[in-house]
Amino acid sequence: MYYIVIGAAGLIIFLLFLRGLYDEKKAVKKLSEKLISSYGEDGMKEMSYEELSSLKRYHENNSEGYEGGQVIDDITWNDLDMDKVFLKADRCCCQTGSEYLYDALRKPLKDEKVIAERIRVSRHFDGDPQKRLSLQLILSRIGRLNGLTISDYINRLDEVSKDNNFLHYFCCLLAAFSIGMIFIYPSAGFPVFFCTLVFNTLTYFKRRGTIEPYIVSFAYIIRTMDAAAGLLRLKDKEIGEYTDKLKEHLTNIKGLKVNTFILLSGRGMTGGMFGMFLDYVRIFLHLDLIKFNHMLAIVRDKNDDIKGLFDIVGFLDFAVSTASFKKSLPVCCIPEHINGDKACIDISSLHHVLLKDPVPSDISAGRGVLVTGSNASGKSTFLKSVAIAAVLSQSLAAVPAKSYRAPFFDIFSSMSLRDDIMAGESYYMAEIRALKRILDRADRNDEPLLCFVDEVLSGTNTIERIAASSQILKSLDRDNVLLFAATHDIELTFMLSDHFDNYHFSEDVEGSDIHFSYRLKPGSARSRNAIRLLSLLGYDEEITQNAQKTAEHFMKENKWEKL
After folding, report:
1. Whole-angstrom Cα distance, residue 431 to residue 484?
2. I need a surface site. Which of 4, 170, 315, 478 has the fewest CB within 10 A?
């Protein structure tokens, strides 16, 4: 009777294994279809706050001691809605690629050779759909860490308490003994098996709870090693330089791969019923805990090789993602970066990447630009479009425009600030702090600086705002600085006409309708429609008429009348 039960259990295990293989094959086919259909399609990835936070932590961990150039600060990143730009551009198949992409967007390059290499690899995969799909399927098996980042755990490995494998070996032998007892003395074997199961489960989760994130991370490392081995089998000569380095890193950390089947299997792309069965095996035999302790020593010793492995895998995923992003844009060009310290820019048919039906803009500027116009006319969107184009040109080498020509810039902005109640800081204080960091950067070195300011010093009164902002803007009239500033203060366009070029956005009011063209036009804004807009939105006629009379009195007498 007992042998029938054991035979039935064995058959069930075999069937579960076959079902796992079937599920895996079905998942690969479904994923292939998705990857093919989604390549080059417009869209925005959905990502939780925890996942985005993990990408930022990876970037911060990867930026310690960084000397390769500028790191986009949080003010500029948030001003430009760069989280959304990242989600728009992210088509990566694994977390390592997404981390590489996020980090690349926050570190605009100034190295033409590195940018040229990113263009070359991206073009290669765009032009070879079969190689691209093969690479994507390999990288998709790595998966994601759901709000974790491996760099957090690798950097904190010294905090992991050392654990002797004696207890785990004992649990494993005890499990083997209890199974043997079932065959030799079935009546006593099953109670022993049950007691062993309880003991092993309790001791397993006691240790597992303290090292769970590290086990997940180590399993991710193994999946990345498997993916790297798969990339070697592609025999793609165009990425031979990278596969050679992968081979070297894999050789140096090959000890990590020994006996990892029980640690990795069932935790990959599908899992399924077979993976669930393996979870019970892991709990009963403690095999993943034993392997973890072996891996811990190797990872601590081979940190540089592991980071090198992730860097290459992340770059290749990044290259395919960039190719798909470029293809999704209605218009896209390869940027032309020019030498010299003169700050200038020339862009034609520029689009904002986050808008579905953007109105293109042309801009050619060799000195500062003042942009005027009413609210909602397009000033802020235009400034963000230029800033995002500069970031993309020096990171993804993909600009949403017909042409882009400029030097390599450091990029700063002061646009979407707000009161910091927790810090007890007013809007005006936040403004002047943000502007000060731009002035400090301009004074620090002579390399080209591209900066953007929206509504200069809007947090204070009119007289002091115009007086102070005119002097601040004038001080940024330098050969190595290109400043784009949006303002409602028409007075600045006259005061700074010798230092800045004037452009504007305007709206057309016809009867009770208002229409924004969102087209950039030369010269400063002349129309004053703010009071008219109050009327269009249904404000009381007495308010709008008296407001108009008050404005006309000021224009005529150059002073406000007492109400």
Report:
1. 16
2. 4
